[in-house]
Amino acid sequence: MIKLLSTAAILLSFGASAASFTQGDHYVDLGEAAFNAPNQVTKIYSVNCPFCYKYEKAVIPGFVKNLPDGVSFDSYHITTKPPFGKEKAMVIAVAKVLGDKQYKTAKMAYYKHIHDDKKKFSSAEDAISFGLKAAKIDSVTFSAHKDTSEVKALLTTWDQGVAVAKVRGIPAIVVNGKYLINTKTITSMTMLDELTAELLEK
């Protein structure tokens, strides 16, 4: 009997803690830093960020897979994190416009080069040429796309994440463009999924 009561108490305690998400602890209302992204989960990141790379590999694939039906996911690469953040973002933006495969290839090539291989770029031109080569984008194609309205609009959208990054750094996970998840309080994928689902309903 005691054992059954103890088990019940543990289950009740788990249920209560899983549902007790509070503003200021588990998430932040972004206020003026909010952006227009209804029914969407957005990751703010930079390939220069080692923690963004860890999230990219260990968290994001399962997280995206578990999102509720009808909820979209997007990633905003900010331009402000050095070194050569603007140039890397430009290459990644052009790659995204050209196709999802090229986007992923450029992004992961930068991550690996910087964080796994521990290599640095000697100049902005070096950073650009590396990304283009990895994504198999020739210089003519890059030049033809980098100043288009589509790429400029994409970079402008991504830099909405700059104000978010100033709140608690990156990677930042934002729900509906309004609520920033405090990832330091997340102890499991289930907890992340539950908090995200709750915030999507707010």
Automatic annotation (TrEMBL):
Which residue intervals define the domain Thioredoxin-like fold in the entry?
36-190
Species assigned in the record: Shewanella atlantica
One Pfam family name is Thioredoxin_4
Q: Per the record's keyword annotation, is Thylakoid included, yes or no?
A: no
> What is the top-level taxon of the source organism?
Bacteria
Enumerate the UniProt keywords alphabetically.
Answer: Disulfide bond, Periplasm, Signal
What's the protein called, per UniProt?
A: Thiol:disulfide interchange protein
A Gene Ontology cellular-component term: periplasmic space
Tell me the leader sequence span: 1-18
Localisation per UniProt entry: Periplasm
Q: Which family does it belong to?
A: Belongs to the thioredoxin family.
Which pairs are disulfide-linked? C49-C52
